[in-house]
Each structure stands twice: as C-alpha cells, then as structure tokens.
C-alpha cells in the first residue's frame, strides 16, 4: 500500500494484551482471518502474508479485564487492498453472525467495526482512490455516514472466504489520550506527523505523505483519563516504521528536546506519548544505513 510504505512514517504492528490466548487465537484466525507466524505459551504473532507481523497477542501473568475510561487503544485498523475484499469480509462476518459495532462511510474510506472477545477495538477498511479525497487548507474532508452495505456486498465475487488478503496492512491506529494539546505537540513536533483533521478540541488525526490518517487521537474517555494498569487488557505498544536511521535519529533528538521518555531496546527506540501509550520506533533492516 502506498501510504504504508517508504518514504512515509506509518504503523507496522500493534501489540495487545488479551485474557485468554487460545480464545483469542480462535477468534483472530476464524473470524478475522489471520495466520499464526510464531507462537509460545503466552504470546502469538499474527500475519496476513505469512512473513510480516501485523498483530501480537499476549496473555501476561496476572492479566486483568479491560479497564474503562482510560487511555490506550480505541481500535487498530486493518486496511485491505480493494472493495471486493471488504465485501467478502462483511459477508463472512454476517454468515458467522458475529456482532458488528458499526459500519461507516468516511468519504475517504469505507469501514466496518467490531470488538475482539476482550473488547479490543478493530476496524477493517478499504481506501477510496486518493484522487477522490477532498482537501481544503491542508485538511482532508472526512465524515461518518451510514455504509452502503448492499452496494458493498454487491462487490463480492462469490469466491469462498479464505482469510485476510495477503496484501493486508496495518492501515492506522486510533488511541484514547488524556490531553489533546500535549498530544498534538508530541505527535507533530516530536514524531513529525502533520495534522490532517481536527474535531474541535476532542480529536485529532495525523499522518505523513498526505494520507487521511496514520494515527487517530481522541479524549472521548475523558480529559485527564488515567493510563491503564500494565496487565490490563488493551494496548501494550505499537510500532512506527520510519524511513531511515537518520530520520529516527532526528526524531529522537526532537523527542528529547520535548523531554519525552526515550529508551533503547534491541533494534527499537522506545518512547511514550504524554498519555503513556508506548511506541517502538523501528527502521527496516534494508534501510538501516
């Protein structure tokens, strides 16, 4: 996908905490359509193409149910290559009788929403061609209207559902945060994202490369919402893939100037946004020069 590749900064994979690994694996394989790339007693790495991690599931010792009214994951969003793929997934969910939480037309995309067995939010969506997106004064027009489900289902080619298309990527991630002002400074001045949509003082969408958004940020769980406990169901971390080692070095310097948390862990630089959301800054090995 153009916007989830070099030279953009984009989300690589999400790492979430769940209560029951076997239950979650059944859901993510049979309902969502992932394959297992790696698995241990308490963790599984999931993929769509058999080689690229998109989601990590972890069942830590002492795991607790999802805490309400906290910062953290609103949803992670899986981007499929074409409208027919989204149609096939919608039909599959209908046939499974798995409950949806929503189905929306956002002008730039069409999306369906659901939750996993632990309440972690999931969006599965298809991007309309970028030449149809409308921009004004540096902001992209996005809305939320009812999805034309019948029109979408008419795109189904009648071939059997076999799981997520191999070209599926992590299109974006949407987070609950505690304060929009501090969040904006961190993601723009620190990480280098551009603001592409504002919804008053409650939500902010940012991207690189003129995408409609790589990250969504909102205070819908309450201004000043606390971070969840470390063992609570929800987001443990997510990765941002930067275009080069030089870009990562410059990003780290900007974050240090803001006084943000920085730590080196193996091949990743780890930071936290002002709400405690953990981010791994990664550079692809082939561009690590």
UniProtKB/TrEMBL annotation:
Gene3D superfamilies: 2,3-Dihydroxybiphenyl 1,2-Dioxygenase, domain 1. This is VOC family protein. Residues 10-127, 169-284 form the VOC domain. Keywords: Metal-binding. InterPro entries: Glyas_Bleomycin-R_OHBP_Dase, Glyas_Fos-R_dOase_dom, Glyoxalase_1_CS, VOC_core. The keyword Protease does not apply.
């Amino acid at each position: 996908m153009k916007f989830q590749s070099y030279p953009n900064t984009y989300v690589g994979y999400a790492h979430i905490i769940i209560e029951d690994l076997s239950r979650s694996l059944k859901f993510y394989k049979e309902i969502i359509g992932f394959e297992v790339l790696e698995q241990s007693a308490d963790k599984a790495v999931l993929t769509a193409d058999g080689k690229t991690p998109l989601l990590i599931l972890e069942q830590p010792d002492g795991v607790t149910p999802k805490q309400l009214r906290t910062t953290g994951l609103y949803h992670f969003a899986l981007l499929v290559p074409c409208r027919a793929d989204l149609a096939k997934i919608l039909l599959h969910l209908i046939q499974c009788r798995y409950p949806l939480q929503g189905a929306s037309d956002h002008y730039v995309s069409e999306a369906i929403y659901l939750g996993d067995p632990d309440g972690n939010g999931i969006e599965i969506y298809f991007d309309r061609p970028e030449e149809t997106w409308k921009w004004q004064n540096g902001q992209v027009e996005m809305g939320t209207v009812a999805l034309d489900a019948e029109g979408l289902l008419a795109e189904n080619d009648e071939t059997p559902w076999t799981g997520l298309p191999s070209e599926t990527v992590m299109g974006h991630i949407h987070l609950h945060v505690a304060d929009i002002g501090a969040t904006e400074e961190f993601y723009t001045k620190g990480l280098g994202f551009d603001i592409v949509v504002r919804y008053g003082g409650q939500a902010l969408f940012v991207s690189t490369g003129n995408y409609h958004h790589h990250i969504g940020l909102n205070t819908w769980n309450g201004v000043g919402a606390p971070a969840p406990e470390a063992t609570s169901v929800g987001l443990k971390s997510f990765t941002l893939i930067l275009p080069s080692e030089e870009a990562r070095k410059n990003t780290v310097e900007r974050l240090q100037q803001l006084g943000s948390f920085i730590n080196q862990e193996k091949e990743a630089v780890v930071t936290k946004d002002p709400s405690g959301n953990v981010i791994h800054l990664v550079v692809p090995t082939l561009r690590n020069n």
